Amino acid sequence: MRAKTLAMKLFAVLGIASLVFLVGCGGTTAQSINQRDGAGDGAHQFASTGNLVVSQILHSTTLLADGRVLIACGTTGAVVPTGEGELFDPVSGTFRSFAATPRRFCTATLLPNGKVLIAGGSTDQTARNSAELFDPATGLFQPTGNMTSARSGHTATLLSDGRALITGGVDQTAEIYDPAAGTFVPTGNMFTARSGQTATMLSDGKVLVAGGDALGTAELYDSSSGMFSPTGSLMIPRSGHTATLLPNGKVFFAGGAGPTNDNEFAPIDPRTELYDPATGQSSNAGNMTVPRMWQTATLLTDGTVLLVGGYVGGFHTTTSAEIYDPASSIFTATASLAQSRAYHSATWLADGSVPVTGGQHAEPGPPAALNTAEIYK
């Protein structure tokens, strides 16, 4: 059987301490991590802000039309999800919580009408097929149609026509959500069953689905035909990675790890790559200054990419952050987090700042869920 994604393996065992058996050992010692974390560019900083009401791991963050950030789909580290949604107000720097359907590994997609589609996920070890809509105007959830398949660890990508593509999670099926009808309908199947993959909307309207389950393969979804087609593979297999669409139309892949012979996870790889839709191939984009997985990657206003935190091998989280410049293919250390974290979220705001919320802290001491937040400026 194929490996599940690292996150799914982690939470299949009760408690977050199971992480130590699953994260690849990159050979980076705690001492070297701390030395690297001290580096920075001097021009930026992580500033403290208000705390989350509830500690959140592997949660989603969605920038709403009014500038607030919706936090959903999180877990505190055990099998049961939080059952709490939160709204972050960047103006006041405060979080407000509200009751939400308990879900973990679900997706949150901002629709053209301003509502957020929350789909799938699981409450324990069982995937759900239910979905709902969050309305920022009322602060309430409202029901919508169910997915055609129960899913957890899937992706949801907004298409150019306002519909949403849902892929994988438990198998190779995919489906389309139509906001106008409030229904899900099946679409073409992927070539490969995936969980924990990335799905990136390209400039031509196609969706690039890549990696997950420590796979190196990738495929393209064409909404006009409703079909998937194979494309060039990633240079290395990836799980726990990020995929970022750059202004030049290429997709920047960073972080993650692949499988070893025993079907567990390999050491974290520092190599990054660029997928070019024009050729359907990936090329080397250089090495990160710190090998990391389950980091965040955020496109900044100037076209560079901010990589923050993550696991760095040896079962340690890192405070380090770095900037990737596509123009020069150079990685540069930037300001460090106040608290090391992985499985966190980062959201670009209109003023160019990036709030980093929650996650898991494992340096020093055993893994612990975080309720802290800080803002990169």
Molecular structure report:
The structure is a single chain. The chain is mainly beta and 377 residues long. The chain has one domain (6-376): Methylamine Dehydrogenase, Chain H (7 Propeller), CATH 2.130.10.80. Helix content is 4%, strand content 34%. Strands 1-30-27-26 form a four-stranded antiparallel β-sheet, with no helix packed on it. The relative contact order is 0.17. Residues 1-39 have low confidence and may be disordered.
Question: What features would you highlight for this structure?
Answer:
single chain, 377 residues, mainly beta, Methylamine Dehydrogenase, Chain H, 4-stranded antiparallel sheet
Summarize the topology.
Blueprint: H1 6-12, H2 30-37, E1 46-48, E2 60-63, E3 69-72, E4 84-89, E5 94-99, E6 107-110, E7 116-119, E8 131-135, E9 140-143, E10 155-158, E11 164-167, E12 174-178, E13 183-187, E14 198-201, E15 207-210, E16 218-222, E17 227-231, E18 242-245, E19 251-254, E20 271-276, E21 281-287, E22 296-299, E23 305-308, E24 321-325, E25 330-333, E26 345-346, E27 354-357, E28 360-361, E29 368-369, E30 373-376
Antiparallel strand pairs: 1-30, 2-3, 3-4, 4-5, 6-7, 7-8, 8-9, 10-11, 11-12, 12-13, 14-15, 15-16, 16-17, 18-19, 19-20, 20-21, 22-23, 23-24, 24-25, 26-27, 27-30, 28-29
